[in-house]
Amino acid sequence: MYPITKREKLADKIYLMDVKAPRVARYCEPGQFVIVKIDETGERIPLTICDYDRTEGTITIVFQIVGASTERMAGLKEGDAFQDFVGPLGCASDLVHKETEELKKKKILFIAGGVGTAPVYPQVKWLHEHGVDCDVIMGARNKELLILEDAMRDVATNLYVATDDGSYGFHGTGTAQLKELYDKGIRYDHCVAIGPMIMMKFVCILTKELGIPTIVSMNPIMVDGTGMCGACRLLVGDEVKFACVDGPEFDGHLVDFDQAIKRQSQYKTEEGRAMLKLQEGDTHHGGCGNCE
Amino acid sequence: MDVLKKVPVREQEPLVRAANFDEVCLGYDEAEAVEEAARCLNCKNAQCVKGCPVSIDIPAFVSQIKEEKFEEAYQTISRSSALPAVCGRVCPQESQCEGRCIRGIKGDPVSIGKLERFAADWARSRGITPEAPEQKNGHKVAVIGSGPAGLTCAGDLAKMGYDVTIFEALHEAGGVLIYGIPEFRLPKQEVVAAEVENVKALGVKIETNVVIGQSVTIDELMEKEGFEAVFIGSGAGLPRFMGIPGEQALGVFSANEYLTRNNLMKAFLEGYDTPIKAGKKVIVVGGGNVAMDAARTAKRLGAEVHIVYRRSEAELPARVEEVHHAKEEGILFDLLQNPTEILVDEDGRVRGARVIRMELGEPDESGRRSPVEVPGSEYEIEADTVIMSLGTSPNPLISSTTSGLDTNRRKCIVASEEDGATSKAGVFAGGDAVTGAATVILAMGAGKAAAKGIDNYLKNTRTGS
Questions:
Q1: How near does any CA of chain B get to the CA of A47, in Å?
Q2: What is the pTM of this model?
Q3: Which of A177, A271, B219, B263 is 20 to 30 A from B137 via CA?
Q4: Half-sphere exposure (CA, 13 Å, Cβ side) for B428?
Q5: HSE-up of A131 (CA within 13 Å, CB side)?
Q6: Is B241 in contact with A44 (Cβ distance < 8 A)?
Q7: Quick one: three-class SS letters along B381-449?
Q8: CATH number of the domain bearing residue B108
Q9: Exposed/middle/buried for B373, CB within 10 Å: 0-12, 13-18, 19+?
Q10: By CB neighbour count within 10 A (0-12 exposed, 13-18 middle, 19+ buried), where does A272 fall?
Q11: Does residue B86 sit within a domain?
Q12: Residue B455 pLDDT > 90
């Protein structure tokens, strides 16, 4: 069992937890992910590592309620435990393997969308600890859904906040914020974008146009997370890649986002039904004509 | 009683079982087992034992069953096999022990597999476990993977007194016995979990949720965690796809994914969160045991299922019994055919497949006649789900993170067939990680050989030679 040592609600439907998992905390690096399973009947849920404490042996995860298992996870309290917690999985971010001196010469920008702010944080923190400057654009639908703003402000050189509805900071998407910065004459030569697939797609369209190499972190459907099932396969530059072992980070200008977005919806109906059943009891049996 | 005929084993009716996940084969009762055991000729130079990869003393346990000494029969088997209830169910006996049975020359061979299963089930239902190990010797050995190779190797080492820890990447021990082979062939709680418990009863520790090569490396296990030897039984690895257009469409799955969702994650059971797309009309591409498992699973989830295989029935790599069961349950076999494209609708979902007819040409390097496309014979079939069951290629996680561990051209770990030794001192390997996808019992044979190899290696290291 993997006990929860801290639990915090960050925003509507978004939760942060510190989980005791010494083996994971000993070897993990920014960019990697874990798979958690709440109990016997739960799904295996992949989550990118948000922070880690090697001495305490804890891993910080942030998740949003999207289905039955995450809904039940949100109900866990401090002192409760996950039945299973495995990792670190996937490859570490490219940045952590580069020479610090080389990184210091670059103008690096992170664009974080929604819950994607969580996996961006350890990378920015890592760069900050190694004396490397980087800017961060954080986007969310509205002010209430912004997470980790203070933590990010502590480690980012410049932090730009954008909300779709203009309730806080720049009025518009993270992509629009980048365009505005570019128009003001601010230049970057490396970008890391992490967030919903649709957001990463549009960031990549713009950065391709602006000639900024861009890394994205893909979060497709997974089962085992060790390369065994192939559910997480993506087309990257016409090659089939497994996000769990080849990724999760890829060259965003080569990823086939349209296909990845479609594959994301593979189980939509099934997940939705499981969620409805949890919230409303067994009210949905299909056959109404409104779903498959 | 006709001594040339084996005692028939009771099974669930095909049409009934095609709609449930309960075990197909019901096994022998005591009277049936004794009657079948009496058919054994008790050969002096027993051929059956030579056909068994773990060299079970078959004539001995069969005659013990004949004499109704069922517990003794179980202990006889347990001395050679850590997983008798599993092997009695999933071994390809027709090409091993039973294939060499003298009775089989004129008539049916003795049903050795069903007798093995009987002895194991009899013991389990009475809470009888294998004989406990001698004293511990305090030497630590790590076993990677809790599938058939790992469990066997760990069990044998524990019996020799070693302090064994198994590291398992998934959340449940059993490897392919848990995620791959379906409930209706191998009940998970009743059989697999019970046999894993027996291995633990020998003193073996199992740490789940540890991915070697990610959570910790072999080098670290040996240098920092005090393991003096390591056995790699990590299994087959990454699923293969065909590389044809449309394979990324919604509704195309690897057999590994389909089976893992259903078996490990129990998607077929009410109350489990993991979803599965059952499919209404399913094509399974491939002809091995895994293809049969995927097909029969889809059938039980309510689909019409076609197996599309590029050679003819004689070349199907699956066990005869599996093919026979699949046919009885209404699986349709589209033989000498091969998909050339997965057809996709405007939403990106599978709507069918374009398939070409094949004919058999000259034998290839495997000795099987190689299939050749018949020009102009392409046609379309409708389907909403395609399951690719084309085998696997090795997972590089371990080989790429262990210093000095050699792999071959196919990226499999190179290990001696005799004792499992690899190019790295103290590291042994066996099972699918070495051979590529094969059978449960071959992996067990390799685990057994490696346990002896590790014991010899550590004894030599200790005496300083």
A1: 15
A2: 0.89
A3: B219
A4: 34
A5: 6
A6: no
A7: EECCEEEECCCEECCHHHHCCCCCCCECCCCCECCCCCCCECCCCCEEECCHHHHCCCCHHHHHHHHHH
A8: 1.10.1060.10
A9: middle
A10: middle
A11: yes
A12: yes
- Of B445, B135, B248, B71, nearest to A231 by C-alpha is B248
Of B204, B128, B130, nearest in space to B164 by CA:
B204
Q: Which of B99, B125, B151 is the last residue of a domain?
A: B125
- How many inter-chain contacts (A to B, CB under 8 Å) are there? 114
Among chain A residues, the shortest Cα distance to B261 is held by: A223
* pLDDT tens digits for range B51-82: 888 889 999 999 999 999 999 999 999 988 88
Are B22 and B116 contained in the same domain? yes
Residues B334/B55, Cβ–Cβ less than 8 Å: no
Buried residues in B431-443 as b, exposed as e (16+ CB within 10 A): bbbbbbbebbbbb
Reply yes or no on whether the pLDDT at B156 is more than 50.
Answer: yes
**Cβ-count burial of B354 within 10 angstroms (0-12 exposed, 13-18 middle, 19+ buried)?**
middle
Asked if B88 contacts B118 with a C-beta cutoff of 8 angstroms, the reply is: yes
Asked if omega into A88 is within 30° of 0 (cis), the reply is yes
Q: How close, in Å, is residue B233 to chain A by CA atoms?
A: 15
Q: Does residue A266 belong to the interface with chain B, where contact is any CB pair within 8 Å?
A: yes
Structure-token match 């000795």, residue found? B367
Could you list the residue range(s) of the whole structural domain that residue B432 is in? 140-237+393-463
> Are B398 and B385 contained in the same domain?
no
